[in-house]
Amino acid sequence: MKKFLKILFFASLLLNANYANSAENSAKLLKGDWSFKSFFGKFDRASLQRGYQVYNEVCASCHSVKYLSYRNLMEKGGPEFTEEEAKAIASNFEVTDGPNSTGEMFTRPARLSDKFVMPYANDEEAKSANGGAYPPDMSVLVKARKGGADYIYSLLLGYEDPPVDIELDDGVYYNKFMYGNKIKMSAPLSDDIVEYSDGTKATTEQMSKDVVTFLMWAAEPHLEQRHKFGFRVIIYLVIISILVYFSMKKIWSRIESKV
Amino acid sequence: MSDHEYQPSSRLGKWFNDRLPLLTLSNHLQEYPTPKNLNYWWTFGGILTFCLITQIITGIILGMHYIAHADLAFESVEHIMRDVNYGWLIRYVHANGASMFFLAVYIHIFRSLYYGSYKSPREVIWIIGMIIYFLMMATAFMGYVLPWGQMSFWGATVITNLFSAIPFIGESVTNWLWGGYSVDNPTLTRFFSLHYLLPFLILGLVILHIWALHVPGNNNPIGIDIKKPSKDTVPFHPYIVIKDLFALLLFLIVFAFFVFYSPNILGHADNYIEADPLVTPAHIVPEWYLLPFYAILRSVPDKLLGVIAMFASIFVLVILPWLDTSKVRSAIFRPIYKQFYWFLVADVLILGYMGAMPAEGAYLIIARVATAYYFLHFLVILPVLGKKEKTLDIPLSITEPVLGGFPNQAATKNKQNNRENL
Known about the structure:
The structure holds 2 protein chains of 2 kinds.
Chain A: H1 2-18, H2 45-57, H3 83-91, E1 94-97, E2 106-109, H4 123-129, H5 148-157, E3 173-174, E4 182-183, H6 204-219, H7 223-252
Antiparallel strand pairs in A: 1-2, 3-4
Helix pairs in contact in A: 2-6, 5-6
Chain B: H1 11-19, H2 22-31, E1 33-35, H3 44-65, H4 73-82, H5 87-115, H6 123-145, H7 150-161, H8 170-178, H9 185-214, E2 233-235, H10 236-261, H11 291-299, H12 303-318, H13 320-323, H14 335-356, H15 361-388, H16 399-402, H17 409-421
Antiparallel strand pairs in B: 1-2
C-alpha cells in the first residue's frame, strides 16, 4: 500500500514537472549541439557573428529585433564585434530623428545607441507585406516558443513536401515542426544563400545553427554572465553550508539530542 | 510574553526598555523555548520569512524600473533584463522567488497537516496562515499579469471573468474590477498598485502569525504538549537559529539552480509574447502553484458552482481545526489518518497535473474524481476518522523516547516508518 502511494506520489511529481515540456506537436524536435547549454555554457563568438550576418541578410527583411541596440553587438558576452565594426554596421541603417531647430524631422545614419531599425513602420504594414501573417519580433523569440533554441532550429530545417492528403493554399508552406504543420513563411534558408567571410561553408544546417545562436543571445544577452555567476554562487553556498553544518553539529553536541 | 523578568544590564538599556521593551522582545526571541525534537520540516517557517523579504526587496527594485502601462510594460521588462545593472538577476530572483515561496509554503502547510499543528490551541495561527496563503495567491496572480505577456493578459481575463458568475451583479463587479469593459490599461495599473500593497499586508500578518505562535509555542513531531522551558526544549538561539540557517542554505542552492540555470522553466513560453487582445493562446494555464485550484474550478460543469467550489476548497482549510475531530495531533500516532494523508498529497498532485491539461476526456473525469475526493477528505473522512480511529499510545514527554526506557514499541516503530516516509 505504502509503496503504491510512494510510486503514485513520485509519478505525479514527474508528470507535473513534465507538463512544461510536453510538446504540442508529435514531431520530435531536432537537438542542436549548443555551446551555450550546460553549466559553463558560453556563446561561440564566431557563430554569433555569422548568425548576425544570416539575420541581417535573410531574416531582417521581415523580422525586427526591436529590443537590441547596435551597441549590444560590441558588448561583452555577445558577438563582440569591435567598436569600429559595430559603428560601421550601425551606419548602414537610416533612422528618423528630430525635430531639429527648425522643427523638421530628418534622417541620419544610425549610431551605436540606436535600437535595431525595424523593417516595417508598423504591424499593419508588416502584415500586408506578408500575406496577412505577422512576422514576429525576434528579440525574445527563443524564449517565447516551447522547445526554445531546438524548436527554432528544427523549424528552419523542418520544411518538406506536404503529405499527399494535405492541401496547401497559396503562400502556405508545410513544416513538420510548426504547430498545425502550416506556416506562412517560405523556407528562408538554402545552401550558400549567404557567403561567410571566415570561410565556413554556408550549409542550411550551419546557417540555422548560427542564426539560432544569435537569436538565443538576442533573447538572453547576459547568459554568459548568468552562468558564470551561478557557478560562483552555488560553490559559495555549498562551502558555507558545510561550515554551517559543522557549526550546527558542534552547538547541538552541547545537549543530548540529535539534529 | 516574558517567561521571567528580563533586566537589561546597562542603565541606558534599562531606561530605554522601560519606555519601549524592544530589548525584552529581543531577549524573548532568543530564549524562546523550542521543542528539541523539531525535524527539518519545521525549518520552512524561517525559509518563508526569507522568501517574503527577498520578494519585497527585489520587488521594490523592480518597481523603480518597471512601467505600469499597457503599451510600455512589456518593453520596460525587457529594459530591466537588458540595460538595468543586474536587472536580469533581480527579475529572475523575483520571478523564481515566487515559485520558491509557494514550494516552501506548500511544504509548510503539508507539514502542519501531517503533525496536526492546526489543532487546539493553535487554531488562530492556522487561520492567519491561511489568510496569508490566500493573499499570496492574489499577489502572485497580479504579479504574473504585470509583464503584460500573452499569459498575463489571458490569465487575467480568465480569472477576473470568474466574478461575472456572481448572480445579478456579476457583470458590474467584473467591469468594476477591470476599470472598463475588458482587461486593459486600468486593470494593469490597479494590479500593479495592489501587487505593491499586498506584500506589506502579508508582512503584517506574518508578524501576527509568529506572535500567535509564541503564545502556545511550537507543536512538535510527536504532537504532545510540553513543559516550557524544560528538558524537552532548547533556546531558540543558537540551536534553532543555526539549524534554520543550514536548511535555508540548502534551500538557496535549489533556488540558485533555478535562477541561474533554468530561470524560465517554471514560467510559460507564451508570456514572452507581448499581450495581444486579438489572439487567444491555445491553452491558458495559470502558474504551477495555482493549478490544483484551477483544476477544481474547471471540473465543475456550472460556472458559478465551479467558482464556489474553488473558493470552498480554500475555505475547508480555514475551518480544518474543527473538521478534524481527533484529539491526537501527530500522524505518527494515527495509523489510518497517515494513509489518508498520503492519499490527500497524491490527490492534490493529481489535481495540479490535471489543471495543466486540457479540460476534456479522461483528464476531466480524473479531475472530477480528484475534486470529489478532496472535499470527501476534509468534510467526511476527517470528522469520522477522528471519532473512530484507534490511535497509538502517546509518550509523556519528548525526552522519554530519546533517553531510552521507552515502553511503547508500536510508537517507536511508527516513528521509524515516519522517517522512511519523509
